[in-house]
Amino acid sequence: MIRINLLGVERQAVRKAPVVDFAQRVTLLATLVVVITAGVLGSWYWTLRTASAQVDSDIAAVEQETARLRPLLAEVEQYEARLSQQQQRVALIQQLRSGQSIPVQILDHVSRSLPETLWLTTMNQEGSTLTIEGRSTTLIALSDFVASLGSTELLQKPIEIISSQVEAGNNSRDRSPVELIRFAVRARVTPAPGQAAADGDAKKKRAPKAARS
Which pLDDT value is given to residue 5? Predict the structure, then answer.
């Protein structure tokens, strides 16, 4: 006998796929954007930090090299200063050989009196008057030069600065513009004892002639 269940067949529950609403999608997208942005910023920060560390390393290397070269640069500057002084002395000797009547002792004293930042252009003697012209980078160097000139008995005091004016010039190392002081100094040469006596005798001889006339 066939039995029919009139209550209906039990239906199996059908699982439905979860539905993601709009708010969840926005939240998921925002989270994804934040994660990507954080990754980009982290990578950028790491790159900058690496570059900064490299720059710091390069600066430290340059500072070490500068510290190593500083004594060498000082030696080069000292050598250039000595070379400049020797060149000035040679120039004075050449003036003497070219027919200058300036005594060798005075030339030697003048060359030894030159500061590092001062050099001469001309030096002439007319009678007992010695005129020296040159250039200087500072007034202090000019003052030291004049004081050193007066430290010998070969020249009579006072040593006069008859002119000094500022003019434009160029640095001999990097050709940068600098201000130079163009100066002229005048001094009287102390006559030798024999020369002084001879001058006195000459004046005595000229005096009677002037009286007769």
Answer: 57
